[in-house]
Amino acid sequence: MALDLVRDPEITGTYIRNIPTEKPTEGVDIVEAPRGTLTHHYVTDEKGILTKVNLIVGTTNNYAPIAMSIQKAAKGLIRKGTEVSEGVLNKIEMAFRAYDPCFGCATHAIVGTAALEVRIFDSCGGKMLRSIGRG
Question: How many domains does the chain have?
Fold first, then answer.
């Protein structure tokens, strides 16, 4: 299928791509990607050298629902007397990966594990009881 696509003049014809006739000074692109909407914004100097780059990745757009899903997963999995094992941490991390499956691999430490910290608070006063993490 990939070979058919790269040979398809409908999507690879020369009329699709505009070759710049002068040095651009600014450019913006928005692409829908597996991780969510990706926004690129570039600014260049008179030589075409990048002077400013602003990338807004899907994870940024999804911060609120990611935080809510992680909190819901943690509250559902951790109860008084629950041992917070590696398996429990993995299940909490899965709530994040539903939004951003690439993030875990992109942030692995040299030892090959994703950094993760779970803070456990009491249900009354919001006092932190303990912190469990890895990475």
Answer: 2
